Amino acid sequence: MTPLERLAGLLADGRVPRDSGGYLDLLPPETGRPATLAQAAMQNPVVAAIYERWWRPVGTAVLGLNGLGMDRERGAARETLGLDGEQLVLDVACGPGNFTRGYGEALRGKGFAVGLDVSPPMLARAVRDNGGDRVAYLRADARDLPFADGAFDAVSCFAALYLVPEPFRVIDELVRVLAPGGRLAVLTSARSGVGLLRLPENLLGAATGLRMFDRDEVTDVFDRLGLIEVRQRITGFAQFVSARKP
Ligand SMILES: C[S@@+](CC[C@H](N)C(=O)[O-])C[C@H]1O[C@@H](n2cnc3c(N)ncnc32)[C@H](O)[C@@H]1O
User: Is the CB of 52 inside a 6 Å radius of any atom of ligand 1?
Assistant: First the structure.
């Protein structure tokens, strides 16, 4: 079975995707004008082309993650999600697949990783640069994940909750498709917590459409959704939060 056939078999409700040149597509060709500058950038082929090498390193430096580096981030993600076997893994808002491919490489046997994103240019890059025998890509909306409840052993969503229109609906979906015992990891923004810095944070958010989360906003939602082992690490303006579904 090819990776795309494997992915098609995971789709819920008999949804029938199109093959868009290496990834499966469940959305109409045009999803409307991006509402914010940040969303527009993610639909731009030039940004998709430079994302992994240039755009993300600059973005992580701005968030205060400078020096961490993609390799260390990839290793930390694999470790946090406990990837070492035959797990099914979902990478939501995968961009050009910069984490998804690493997940596929960490898996064995029937292990398989799905990268999901709305942006055609990002997915075209993912297919081109970050494919693999245990990896496949899907165009779908994170607010309406096309998978059954509990379909995945591990789920990640990195560097995206701050630009999607309804981040808490996305978190609900991440938790819904996670199997009991499965692990979830997200990377998103975190306010500095200092009163005076709220003004530049708010201005930056208003100009770009990026949302700054209060420090407890994401962990509170994880607690409310019944997740356990909730761990948060704040570095600069970024937070990495992981948890397990009981
Ligand atoms: C900054 S990139 C993150 C890529 C990768 N996860 C990383 O950490 O480098 C954010 C991605 O979120 C995607 N995205 C935005 N809104 C989305 C939605 N509603 N559903 C799925 N993906 C979305 C964008 O297309 C973009 O590729």
Answer: no
CATH number of residue 100's parent domain:
3.40.50.150
* Domain membership of residue 55 as a residue range: 3-244
Ligand 1 atom 12 nearest Cα:
93
Per-residue pLDDT of the chain (246 residues; tens, 9 = 90+): 999 999 999 999 878 899 888 999 999 887 667 778 888 888 889 989 988 888 888 877 777 766 567 888 899 999 999 998 999 999 999 999 999 999 999 999 999 999 999 999 999 999 999 999 999 999 999 999 999 999 999 999 999 999 998 999 999 999 999 999 999 999 999 987 666 667 777 777 777 778 989 999 999 999 999 999 999 999 888 899 999 999
Is 6 a pocket residue for ligand 1 (Cβ < 6 Å)?
A: no
CA distances from 212 to 111, 189, 197 (A): 35, 5, 12
Best CA proximity match to 9, nearest among 136, 150, 174, 153: 136
- Per the structure, the count of domains in the chain is 1
